[in-house]
Write a structure and sequence with these properties.
The structure is a homodimer. The first copy, chain A, is mainly alpha-helical. Chain A is 58% helix and 7% strand. Chain A binds a DNA duplex through α4. Chains A, B: Residues 12-144 form the HTH marR-type domain.
Chain lengths: 153, 153
DNA sequence: TATTGTTATACTCTATAACTATA
DNA sequence: TATAGTTATAGAGTATAACAATA
C-alpha cells in the first residue's frame, strides 16, 4: 500500500514557512560543507565582516549582523583563541577593541568562501543564474523590513 | 560626522546569508503577530499539520515538518495540555497516538491564520503578487534539496 | 527485527539584566 | 549620561542515545 502523502495544511501558502524550510536546508548543507574547518555559520559571518572592515569593533559587527553585544563576546573570544582575528585596544577609544583578521584568518576565510561557493551551487542547482539573481533581489527587499538590532531604550 | 557604512564582505552575494536574514525578519514579526496567543512558530506548524490530517500520529507530523521524534513529545504534550489537540491511542496500532484538533484547536488555528495573513502582508508589502508567487516557487525548488529527517540507519 | 513514543541529556543560538570602564 | 565590552543566566530549538511497548 502506497504511503499516503500528508498535507502541511495552512502552512502551504505561507512565505514564512517556505523561507524557514529553505533556510533549514541551506543550514544543514552549510554545516556539511564546513565540516572539519571548525567554523560555524555565525563565526564565519563575523570573520567576513571583520575582514571586510579592518579596525571595526565588536558592537559594530553585531549591528551589521543582527547579533547582540552580549553574544558577540564569546564569538570574538572564539575567533581570537583560534588565531583568526586580532583584537587590540582602539587608541582612539579605549573602551573599544579594534578587530582585524590575522593572516591565518584571511587564509581560513578564503578556504571557507571556496567551500561555501560549492555549497551554494549545490543548493541553487535547480535555479538559473537569472532566477538566482531574482531570489537575491526578493530576499533583499524582505530583509529591509527587519527591525534594527540592540537594546531599544 | 556621518556614520560610515560597514560592508558584510564575503556574505554579500550569498543566497544562504540573505535567506537567513529574511527568515530572521519574518521570525521576529511572526512572534509579534502571535503575541498573546501563546502559540509559537513550531507549535503552530504542528497544529496546522494535525488539523490538515486528522488521525495522523506524532512520528508522521515530525517527518512532514522535519522535527525529530524525541522533540515531538513535548510539542504534542503542550498542545494537548492547552486543549488544542486530542490524543488517543490508535486502535489499529496501539503503539501510536491518533491526533486531531479539538474544537478549541480549530478556532485557535483560524485566529492564528488570520494573524499570520496580516503578518505575511506586512513582510511582503514591497513585493507584487507576481513576485510573491515567484518567491514561493523559488523557495519550493530549494526546499526539495533538504535531506530527509529521522535517525538514518 | 523494526517502529512508536518516551526519557534524559547536551549543545547552540538568542535574549535580558546588571555590572565596569571609558567617553 | 551614553557607549563598549563583560558576566551570568535563562529559554528556545535541535541533536543523540537508550529504553519500553507493540508490530
Amino acid at each position: 500500500m502506497a504511503r499516503e502523502q500528508e498535507s502541511v495544511g495552512a502552512l502551504a501558502p505561507l512565505a514564512g514557512y517556505h523561507l524557514r524550510r529553505a533556510w533549514s536546508a541551506f543550514s544543514s548543507d552549510f554545516s556539511a560543507a564546513m565540516e572539519g574547518t571548525g567554523l560555524r555559520q555565525v563565526p564565519f559571518a563575523v570573520l567576513s565582516v571583520v575582514a571586510a572592515n579592518p579596525g571595526i569593533n565588536q558592537g559594530a559587527v553585531g549591528r551589521v549582523l543582527g547579533i547582540k553585544r552580549a553574544n558577540m563576546v564569546s564569538l570574538i573570544n572564539e575567533l581570537v583563541d583560534k588565531g583568526l582575528v586580532d583584537r587590540a585596544v582602539d587608541p582612539n577609544d579605549r573602551r573599544a577593541f579594534s578587530l582585524k583578521p590575522t593572516d591565518g584568518g584571511t587564509a581560513t576565510l578564503e578556504d571557507a568562501v571556496a567551500r561555501i561557493a560549492a555549497h551554494e551551487q549545490r543548493m541553487l542547482a535547480d535555479l538559473s543564474p537569472q532566477e538566482q539573481a531574482t531570489l537575491l533581489d526578493l530576499l533583499g527587499r524582505i530583509e529591509r523590513r527587519a527591525p534594527e538590532i540592540e537594546e531599544a531604550a
